[in-house]
TrEMBL record:
Name used for this protein in its record: Class I SAM-dependent methyltransferase
Classification via InterPro entries: Methyltranfer_dom (IPR025714), SAM-binding_MTase (IPR053173), SAM-dependent_MTases_sf (IPR029063), WHD_Rv2258c (IPR048711)
Organism: Pseudonocardia xinjiangensis
Superkingdom of this protein's organism: Bacteria
Pfam families listed in its UniProt record: Methyltransf_31, WHD_Rv2258c
Sequence ranges assigned to domain S-adenosylmethionine-dependent methyltransferase Rv2258c-like winged HTH in this UniProt record: 39-108
Length: 364
């Protein structure tokens, strides 16, 4: 990862006003690109252009939008280097705009590991709640996941979907011997904080012998998870419960929490529930952000993006449900270790699974 803050020196003498001004100006341009990507996604522009090159009137007709807006958006995307144009010298409504294949993968291929568009939707969607965030910062309160609404829910699920249906169940988890045995012998799995259910569904698709119970307290997410399970053809082996996992009965061979412990207002209680649900020889797995082990400034791009999510989404959501420990996105290993020990575990083990954004923990 590159480090755009490398102009700062070890002595604390940061960049000049001119240099930092240029950096912020560049960020404004990129923020506008994110806003344009949000529009392109919501209005179906990218999906239409992924099929064939279109003129502004053709794009407007395909998407049910106004030609004048379609033309301006297309021209912005061409100027920004997202689209190419066949005949820039033609009359405005006769220019034909193309979406290159590589760009189309990032913007429209929902199963590609390169599908970054949901992150743009998340940023733009959260941007609609800045007034509420300002109020929370002043009061010490929060802005809940339900307040962030559809954009946050759908973008979060879409961002993780390629991993949860791909490398996670097919490569990462089978590389851990104890988990491999559970998956190979058709064990029972509890997926805590399952969201739209892609982690549960991915495990079931990759390992036909297992059964999965997914738990989440967000009703719209559970509704979508149930629909996704039906469409994936695994609803006979994957059940989703709109309930706190603390209400679950029985024991499981594998208990998981994928990218959600840092959001929990009371993570110790959740981890204790996971411990109770695990069979005597069961595996408890937590997957969370691969942030740096200690605070360092300036940080790399992963650290920056995780703090970005924390200050606008994860911390406000956590603090919206008092009493809350207020973890935030940047949950370092020592923080999880402390939570785990408070929940009755002996320790945590960082598993040797390499991923740019996630760290894998087995709780002993």
């Amino acid at each position: 990862m590159t480090d755009p803050t490398a102009t700062a020196t070890a002595t604390g003498a940061g960049p000049s006003a001119e240099t930092f001004g240029e950096r912020l100006f560049g960020a404004v341009i990129q923020a506008q690109l994110v806003q344009a990507a949000y529009l392109g996604d919501r209005l179906g522009f990218y999906r239409a252009l992924a099929v064939e090159a279109l003129t502004p009137p053709e794009l407007a007709a395909r998407t049910g939008t106004a030609v004048r807006y379609a033309r301006e958006w297309l021209e912005h995307q061409a100027v920004a280097g997202v689209l190419t144009v066949d005949d820039a010298g033609a009359a405005p409504d006769e220019r034909r705009f193309r979406l290159p294949a590589g760009h189309a993968e990032v913007l429209t291929d929902v199963l590609s590991p390169n599908h970054v568009l949901p992150l743009a939707r998340m940023v733009a969607g959260i941007g609609q709640h800045m007034d509420a965030l300002v109020g929370a910062y002043r009061s010490g309160g929060g802005v809940s996941w339900s307040d962030f609404g559809t954009d946050a829910r759908e973008a979060q699920a879409a961002a993780n979907r390629p991993l949860f249906l791909g490398a996670l169940p097919r490569e990462y988890l089978p590389s851990v011997p104890a988990i491999h045995e559970v998956l190979r012998h058709g064990g029972r799995v509890a997926d805590v904080g399952c969201g739209f259910g892609w982690s549960s569904i991915g495990l079931a698709l990759a390992h036909p012998g297992i059964t999965v119970d997914g738990y989440d307290v967000d009703e719209p997410s559970v509704t979508e998870a149930r629909r996704n399970a039906v469409e994936a053809g695994v609803a006979d082996r994957v059940r989703f419960h709109c309930a706190d996992a603390a209400t679950a009965e029985g024991r499981y061979d594998l208990v998981t929490a994928f990218e959600c412990i840092h959001d929990m207002p009371a993570p110790v209680g959740v981890l204790a529930t996971m411990r109770r649900l695990a069979a005597p020889d069961g595996v408890v797995l937590v997957v969370d952000e691969r942030v740096a082990e200690t605070f360092t400034a300036p940080g790399d791009e992963v650290e920056q993006v995780m703090y970005g999510w924390s200050i606008t989404c994860c911390l406000p959501d956590g603090l919206a449900h008092p009493p809350s420990v207020g973890t935030g996105t940047v949950m370092r290993p020592d923080t999880l270790r402390r939570y785990a020990r408070d929940a009755g575990y002996a320790d945590i083990e960082i598993l040797p699974i390499e991923d740019d954004f996630f760290r894998f923990y087995r709780l002993r």
